[in-house]
Amino acid sequence: MNIYSNALAADTHLDVEGLFTEGFGQYDDWIDEMCQQFLHSNDSCDPIPVSELKTLFTDTTMPAQQQSMGQYLDEFQHQILPHCSHLASPTYVGHMTSPLPNFVSQLSRLVMILNQNMMKIESCRGLNFVERQVLAMLHKEVFHLDDAAYLQNVQDANVNFGCFTSGGTVANITAMWVARNQRQAALQASGSRGVIIGSELMHYSFDKAADLLGLDLIRLPFDDQYCLPLPHLKQALSEAQSQDQPVVALVAIAGTTDFGSVDPIAEMAELARAQGAHLHVDGAWGGAMVLCEEGKAMLSDIHLADSVTIDGHKQLMTPIGCGLLLTRDVATLGNIRKEAPYAIRSSSLDQGRFTLEGTRPAMALYLHAAFHLIGKSGYGELLSKSLARAQMLAEMLNETQEFELVHAPKMNLMVYRYLPQGYRGRRLTEQENEFVNTFNVALQKRQRALGNTFVSRTKRVTNLYPQQPLVLFRAVMLNPLTTRTHLQTVIADQLVIAESLEREVRDQDLDLGGMQ
Amino acid sequence: MNIYSNALAADTHLDVEGLFTEGFGQYDDWIDEMCQQFLHSNDSCDPIPVSELKTLFTDTTMPAQQQSMGQYLDEFQHQILPHCSHLASPTYVGHMTSPLPNFVSQLSRLVMILNQNMMKIESCRGLNFVERQVLAMLHKEVFHLDDAAYLQNVQDANVNFGCFTSGGTVANITAMWVARNQRQAALQASGSRGVIIGSELMHYSFDKAADLLGLDLIRLPFDDQYCLPLPHLKQALSEAQSQDQPVVALVAIAGTTDFGSVDPIAEMAELARAQGAHLHVDGAWGGAMVLCEEGKAMLSDIHLADSVTIDGHKQLMTPIGCGLLLTRDVATLGNIRKEAPYAIRSSSLDQGRFTLEGTRPAMALYLHAAFHLIGKSGYGELLSKSLARAQMLAEMLNETQEFELVHAPKMNLMVYRYLPQGYRGRRLTEQENEFVNTFNVALQKRQRALGNTFVSRTKRVTNLYPQQPLVLFRAVMLNPLTTRTHLQTVIADQLVIAESLEREVRDQDLDLGGMQ
User: Fold this and answer.
1) Is residue B25 part of a domain?
2) Same structural domain for residues B404 and B480?
3) A369 and A382: one domain?
4) Which of A390, B115, B220, B481 could form a disulfide linkage to A412, CB 3.0–4.6 angstroms apart?
5) Which chain B residue shows the shortest CA-CA distance from A180?
């Protein structure tokens, strides 16, 4: 007898209306069991490697008849659950998806029953105002307008402190859309394509935005601090001017996803203003750092931005699907305002007038709950500890001879690589680096396949070898439950795998060339 | 003592890590109570009118300290829950948001714990393949490719049967993006703006798409069946040709949101093909009808489309946030392919290479569950009953002298209006229609404010008075629990309100002019 025998015994086939009237409370314990099963395992428990998983999901015919909940959960538990990615494991330190505080799971039941649509006031009533309130709360932490400005605008339906989006990508696209529409006159006058300028480290959502909006995207090489170099920017601006290309937006990154670096926001804001361009700060990762003291110092100029992207589902600990675009000026989103007399009326309170998306779920409720249940002090503590955890890992890596840390962490993430024996403590040739790259790819792939620990992988030009991209591990300190012991486990795991890889290479059992 | 006294008694302040380690099971009953409270009330239970709700949500300072779960739920229950919109009430027949089958609420706890990110294989593993499988299942119902095509492509990571999006808007935008990129050569050669052509009834997401993509949008007047008229289309095509404007896409609507009409897909597909343009079918509302026999007949040509939008959160009964774009040709989404060597690698299995959005939640799990727990037969039954329910309401309206039905329902929705005494059974002048419009606005607003029943409102030119837009009620038959009695309640509610409005107008207690 296991925990779900009772549920299976009570399992009944309902008619289709029954799905809407009957409760499914008898399955609660079973679902709890699955939650616990998931939280206390990791990818190593999956008996099937990723490369073979596809063979399990080839039936493409919609089930003809209804299954019962018991049948479905049984299938789910055995055929789907074991193959999910264990992002919340404290030894998985490569993702930007956090474990969620446990209240989210309980609250989600209510949020699903409510199933409010934030596009229109008619389909969300009071939550329309809650969403605006939550946006204002975060806006205040970023832009620090005076209290009167918040009181005046928070519930004025014709202006916005920003909007919720499905994620940072849609927030960044929305920012670029606003920026382009603001420059419409200049664009028409010049007849040339407008440009977005930022560093090479800009997220690839800006490639999407540029493609969608018909703009050119200029990615400038970064400086020795992994920041956008102002001299290069000035040169790019004067080139754009000489080619009569209106500059639509400058993009400053607040927390690059590989290095944690922050671009020079104040200087970029000034340059943008002089051009009539929009300054957008992509703080999808790092923007939330305004909620801790150390972060505030790193982001002291963020209030100078015209708009800021922050992902709730990264450092604000909400479920995935919670992006935010904050705009300093409450009139900014008016540049993309759309109405429809049959649906989104001009005189309405509908937020749908100001968003790229239409129908939207009430993700604001999760952020609202987090603001209350974690609180500003709780976020401060979580973020400070993440920064300290990054320093700790950096020190642990520096103490080894096997690992090479690319730079002291600027935020709560860092990149590093493994150096095989014979490649340590000296300058490497290009060919040697190629070998080390290949080795690190193999190491990360095997670590991922074994599934006990996880660090992600990137490939970047760094200050170590400015002419050559290096394959690097990326460690992200986001999980509040990751301890020193967990980090030691991650490092030990990599060392053991590396040693066996080195042996295989030596014994010619492994052809690294085939693993690129 | 109420149900949550125990929970409050056991309420504890946790340290911030405790939020990630402690369960919140002691609050389950309380949350259940809130779910039931919500499901068994309606907007009439909200003591505060929408116009005054904003005064409740003006505090814009993030809470400094953590609240306990008990404190938060107490606030939630009293200060937020009463003000949500009761979309699931069986007498609310104006929304396109359905009540959800009860298994969704239970499953959501698990989905939240998993918190998988569908963008990358590393952060969703097996769910990557489940998502592709679910897309293929729905694709098969729409496009009916042969079994070999499904088997060959379902798990081939370099092609797609489509993609999940946050909603129909992003699906429509993605379709137009694909279409424009396919026409890049023609657009560059001509140097003119490309055009999207469809009927006036196109969703306003196409205005967003046109603005984003730098395209012109041509909205043709509809014919007497509320469909796109082919002669007008042919004329528009030849005008575009004479102006050397490449036609990027034709948009056929499968289930207009006010009339339920379906554009002539087969003829439009042929015309699109002749132009080298993309034929997109916006089936956000009506596309799901392929799952019932009557709907299949209405949509017999939908397989000729190049792409089709369907919203899971409309007639497929998933929570909000579940849009789908299906593409007939598995290579179509290659037109918007984006990669990033540091994140979304070219050789990976990552779905993020082919989506407008980046990080995405596992909404596919809700659709997967619905496909199994409702099944094709269950959907067939639900959809057929909705169509029958629409016929029933139409008959009920036709039996009254007070209501004027604009047309026999083509799908499970319809528009109608109330005719005050003295305005019935005869042709009205323009001025009289203006009065009737104003009256219907007032009627719908008061009905919404009272909150016992709900029908939405639109304003459209119709065949009744082809020169003048009429204010109309829109009734949507989506809720499986809506019975004849509920519909009688809706009608009776409107009649009582109308009668008192007429009396107030007669007694000059009400100035309708101020209510436009």
Assistant:
1) yes
2) yes
3) no
4) A390
5) B212
Domain membership of residue B481 as a residue range:
378-515
Q: How many CB pairs under 8 A join A and B?
A: 461
Closest-CA residue of B relative to A77 is: B110
Residue A492 lies in a domain: yes
Are A16 and B61 a contacting pair at CB < 8 A?
A: no
Which secondary structure element, helix H or strand E, spans residue A195, and what is its range? strand A195-199
The complex's ipTM works out to 0.96
Dump pLDDT digits (tens) for B432-472. 999 999 999 999 999 999 999 999 999 999 999 999 999 99
Q: Where are the beta strands (DSSP E) in A88-145?
A: none
Q: Tell me how far apart the alpha carbons of residues B507 and B511 are, in angstroms, rounded to a whole number.
A: 10
Q: Do residues B80 and B135 share a domain?
A: no
pLDDT confidence bin for B273, thresholds 50/70/90: very high
The pLDDT value recorded for residue A3 is: 63
* The pLDDT value given to residue A494: 98
Residues of chain A with pLDDT under 50: 1, 515-516
Q: Give the minimum alpha-carbon distance from A270 to chain B in angstroms, rounded to a whole number.
A: 27
CB contact under 8 Å between A320 and B46, yes or no, is no
Cα distances (Å, whole numbers) of residue A128 to A344, A454, B26: 14, 40, 30
Q: Which residues contact B26 (CB under 8 A, 6 or more apart)?
A: B6, B7, B10
Residue among A62, A102, A121 whose CB faces B376 most closely: A62
**Are B366 and B227 within one domain?**
yes
A57 and A158 fall within a common domain: no
Amino acid at A147: D
Longest dimension (CA), chain A: 78
Q: How many domains does chain B have?
A: 3
User: For residue A197, what is the DSSP state?
Assistant: E
Final residue belonging to a domain, choices A337, A357, A373: A373
Q: What is the CATH number of the domain that holds A280?
A: 3.40.640.10
Q: What is the pTM of this model?
A: 0.97
Among B338, B373, B408, residue at a domain's last position: B373
Residue A395 sits in the same domain as residue A312: no
Residues of A in contact with B75 (CB under 8 A): 372
Q: Residue B412 sits in a domain of what CATH number?
A: 3.90.1150.170
Q: How many CB atoms lie within 10 A of CB B114?
A: 26
What pLDDT is recorded for position B3?
63
Residue A103 counted as domain residue: no
Q: How far apart are CA B405 and CA B463, in angstroms?
A: 11
pLDDT (tens digit, 9 = 90+) per residue, A127-162?
999 999 999 999 999 999 999 999 999 999 999 999
Sheet with A469-476: list strands edge to edge: A403-405, A413-418, A469-476, A456-461
Do A196 and A67 belong together in one domain?
A: no
Contact of A246 with A187, CB cutoff 8 Å: yes
